[in-house]
Amino acid sequence: MSEESVSYQSDIDHGADAAPAVANGPSGAAGKTGAADLTGGPGPRPPRRGLAAIAARRGAFAAVLAPVLACAVTLGALTAWTASGAAGSPAEPTLVDARIMLPSNPDATAALFNLTNEGGADDALVRVSTPAKAGRVMLSRSVHENGVGTMQMVSSVELPAGGSLEMSATGLDVMVEDPPPMRLGERVPFVLHFRDSPPLRVNALVVRPGS
Questions:
Q1: H/E element holding 13?
Q2: Quick check: 191 and 130 in contact, CB under 8 A?
Q3: At residue 11, what are phi and psi to the nearest 5 degrees?
Q4: 151 SS3 class
């Protein structure tokens, strides 16, 4: 083989080896990426770890926000209760209704009082008295056990803030022993004594039993 043939073959071999270098040059892979960007194609996607971090941050934010919103709702309710004037105010027992049964038995009868507490503190009815000429006056409750009804004395009855107390002939009532003479439509004076509030003077209307 002549020297010219060897030189020519060497040039061909060097040209083949140089081709990949051209493909990896500026006009190779990088050039293709640039072309994609120029034509408005999609850019590189964020890594999966980045998406997981974003989701974790959103979950943490929601976890922090929930108790904040709950506190805001509670604070709003407390503000409304305070604005109404009930917060911190003393108990305020108020009479709704007062009755005493016309005695069918001269030995005893029952008086019934319905009350509300318009104040912001709890209280309790602890005793009932009457300036009228009568025997003992006691808080009592009707209790039925094994088909037998009995009366049990009660030391006090709760009157919660914003709540009520209702008496009935078959439940809680005030037993009046040796009641004074009375007629339908008359009024009999009583004094209601409370644990915290001042005594409340009331007049009970004489009604027929069961009224």
A1: helix 3-23
A2: yes
A3: -65, -40
A4: strand
Q: pTM for this one?
A: 0.59
Contact 189, 203 (CB under 8 A): yes
pLDDT per residue as tens digits for the range 38-52: 445 555 565 556 656
CA angle (165, 109, 197) in 5-degree steps: 35
The radius of gyration computed from the CA coordinates of the chain, to the nearest angstrom, equals 46
The predicted-structure confidence for 57-78, as pLDDT tens digits, reads as follows 666 555 655 565 665 655 554 5
Q: Which residue has the tokens 């914003």?
A: 162
The DSSP line for 71-133 is HHHHHHHHHHHHHTT-TTPPP-EEEEEEEEEPPSBTTEEEEEEEEEE-SSS-EEEEEEE-SSS
Q: What is the pLDDT of residues 73-115, one digit of tens each?
A: 555 545 555 555 555 799 999 999 999 999 988 899 999 999 9
